[in-house]
Write a structure and sequence with these properties.
By secondary structure, this protein is α+β, with helices and mostly antiparallel strands. Among the domains are: 259 residues, Beta-Lactamase (2-Layer Sandwich); 132 residues, Histidine kinase-like ATPase, C-terminal domain (Heat Shock Protein 90). It has 17 helices and 18 strands. A five-stranded antiparallel β-sheet has the order 2-1-5-4-3, sandwiched between helices. Strands 7-6-10-9-8 form a five-stranded antiparallel β-sheet. It has a five-stranded mixed β-sheet with strand order 12-14-15-17-16. Helix 2 runs antiparallel to helix 8. This is Integral membrane sensor signal transduction histidine kinase. It is a multi-pass membrane protein.
């Protein structure tokens, strides 16, 4: 019901459209065929152009982001290589072990001789000088490193000034120690953090931390390599100036390592934020970034798993195509205007003849038959005018003939009345024979004549195609009575009770031809032939079963009969004379009920035949 209510306004508009005059329909058609395609073509051309620019930009930015990820990998790899140097420099490892033994002796309280205190102090200074000399060498290997720190196992830090020293070294040591403890021997990447150095300058740094092992693969300390995020600015800044967008670097824990405008630096990306999208090795998507719809392109570092995310505002991409878009819009509007004017002119020109023909039709409707359409063209309008003239001429002829037809009507009715005399004459003659037989005490002839009259009246007089089951079975009883007169004691008819089905309607003259065919071809001279009739309902259908105990049929004969039933009656009659009555009944059933209905024949040689009549279930009140 709701669906119908929803479709009702649309149907109303369609009905209104069909009521429009022809010229306005043509204008609408021209609009649909010209203006709409032109508009759609212009729109999709613009969209395809913009999409092409976006695709090309996306591909370019994708390459840039991939290159950035590769450079990031190289940068981190260089820092990791720098962190492995102590593992290959025996001097650094020896000095770290000296530092460990020195502070181990302090913790155990072994101060030695009276001059030992001064000796230990000098030893610690010497150790620091030796380690920091190595750090000075490490600081100068890679220009982009901010500072390199070495720690012994007791957390004592050794460093040399390069671009400042952290003020939180002692606090960060525990974090670094925990980070390398998870993956023994592997470097740990520490996310970006804001650091204040000894000159009170604030920097954003990320670090590579690795444990240092002696030759026996025992941990003897840590090395920490700090990198200033300003080093990324050199290969990101130029690109951001071109795209007017932003660049982000995010680690696997969704912590922002780098941000062009440093809004998200050191922060963890919130759940559901667009920066969490894009877990594939690379890809792109459209997202609203700071109120501007932007193209977001990302690539994932193969080494560190960090994601490089680059945003490009879409309005920056389409800024260069604005002039082309304005020209396309102007050309489209001009074309639409010309097409609209042309469609109006053509529609009125094409319907001029039709409007004139319509006026003539209205004149004919008012009774004026002395009109004629002047044909000047051979197009559809001219042909329609010719047909109109012929129609008017034909109407005049029909009016003239109408009078003659009226005069002949009574004559036709008289002939129809006379055509009914012959059947009545036959019935009256049979009735006279019956009365004469009764008068002469010939009851058998009288009964036969009466039954024959009933059969004739049912078959010929009643013009109805459908009858009640009771009427059809009564006709069968009368037929079997006549056969009993011919072959006394040879037949027995058994009809199962059908009281609740007596108002069921079926096609007239269906059962008797089937029984007649059974008697003609299936009667066994050595026994009484029993014909049984039963009726049952099956869904929307009714099935009448007519069964006999005659001679039956062989499999070959049965198959031949079934094929004959599937053929048109004329062709089937030529091929098989035995089943003419069955084919007639089967074809009538299919004609009136449909192809799903008709006869089904089953037979076993020596046991009898069974015919199923499938009917559509209809009742008398229907």
């Amino acid at each position: 019901m709701l669906k119908r209510l929803h479709l009702w306004p649309l149907r109303g508009r369609l009905v209104q459209l069909t009521q429009l005059r022809m010229e306005w329909k043509l204008i609408i058609i021209f609009v649909c065929l010209l203006i709409i395609p032109i508009s759609l073509l212009s729109y999709y051309s613009d969209q395809n152009y913009v999409s092409s620019v976006q695709d090309n930009t996306s591909a370019y930015v994708q390459e840039v982001s991939k290159e950035t990820a590769n450079r990031l990998d190289e940068y981190i790899q260089d820092m990791e290589k720098l962190s492995t140097i102590p593992a290959y420099v025996d001097e650094i490892k020896e000095n770290l072990e000296l530092s460990n033994r020195y502070y181990e002796s302090l913790e155990s309280g072994q101060t030695g001789a009276p001059s030992a205190s001064q000796s230990l102090t000098l030893s610690s200074v010497e150790i620091r000088q030796r380690i920091e000399s190595s750090i000075n060498f490490l600081n100068n290997i890679k220009e982009d490193t901010t500072s390199v720190y070495l720690f012994d196992q007791y957390g004592n830090a050794y460093y040399r000034y390069k671009s400042g020293v952290r003020q939180d070294i002692d606090k960060r040591y525990a974090v670094w120690k925990q980070a390398v403890g998870r993956d023994k021997g592997l470097p740990a990447l520490i996310p970006t953090e804001e650091v204040v150095n000894n000159t009170n300058r604030r920097n954003y740094l990320f670090s590579v931390v690795r444990e240092v092992f002696n030759n026996a693969y025992e941990p003897i300390g840590l090395i920490v390599v700090d990198a200033n995020m300003d080093s990324f600015e050199r290969f990101v800044k130029d690109m951001d100036e071109v795209t007017h967008g932003k660049t982000f670097i995010i680690n696997k824990e969704d912590i922002v390592i780098y941000d062009s405008d440093r809004t998200f630096m050191t922060r963890k990306v919130e759940a559901g934020h667009w920066l969490q999208r894009g877990r594939e090795p690379q890809g792109s998507f459209i997202e609203d970034v700071d109120g501007r719809e932007s193209l977001v392109v990302y690539s994932v570092s193969e080494r560190s798993g960090w994601r490089v995310v680059i945003t490009v505002p879409l309005d920056e991409l389409t800024q260069g195509v604005q002039r082309t878009r304005e020209f396309t819009l102007f050309a489209t509007l001009l074309t639409i205007s010309l097409a609209l004017v042309l469609s109006i002119f053509l529609s009125f020109a094409l319907t001029r003849s039709l409007r004139k023909l319509l006026l003539l039709m209205k004149s004919v409707q008012q009774g004026n038959l002395e009109v004629s359409f002047p044909v000047t063209t051979q197009d559809e309008a001219g042909r329609l005018g010719n047909q109109f003239n012929r129609m008017i001429e034909r109407i005049r002829q029909l009016i003239e003939e109408n009078t003659r037809i009226g005069e002949r009507k009574k004559e036709a009715e008289l002939h129809a009345l006379q055509s009914q005399i012959n059947p009545h004459f036959i019935y009256n003659t049979l009735e006279s024979i019956r009365m004469t037989a009764e008068f002469n005490d010939d009851d058998e002839v009288a009964d036969m004549t009466e039954i024959l009259g009933k059969l004739l009246r049912y078959s010929i007089t009643d013009k109805k195609e459908f009858v009640q089951v009771e009427d059809e079975l009564e006709h069968l009883r009368n037929y079997m009575k006549l056969q009993e007169f011919r072959y006394p004691g040879r037949f027995r008819l058994e009809i199962e009770p059908y009281g609740r089905y007596e108002s069921l309607r079926m096609l007239k003259l269906t059962v008797q031809p089937i029984v007649e065919n059974a008697i003609l071809h299936g009667m066994n001279p050595s026994q009484t032939m029993v014909v049984s009739v039963s009726l049952a309902l099956s869904g929307e259908d009714a099935v009448m079963v007519i069964k006999d105990n005659g001679v039956g049929m062989s499999g070959e004969t049965l198959e031949k009969l079934r094929r004959s039933l599937s053929l048109p009656q004329a062709e089937g009659d030529r091929r098989d004379k035995r089943g003419i009555g069955l084919r007639n009944v089967n074809e009538r059933l299919k004609l009136y009920y449909g192809e799903a209905y008709g006869l089904e024949v089953y037979s076993t040689e020596g046991e009898g035949t069974e015919v199923h009549v499938r009917l559509h279930r209809t009742w008398e009140q229907e």
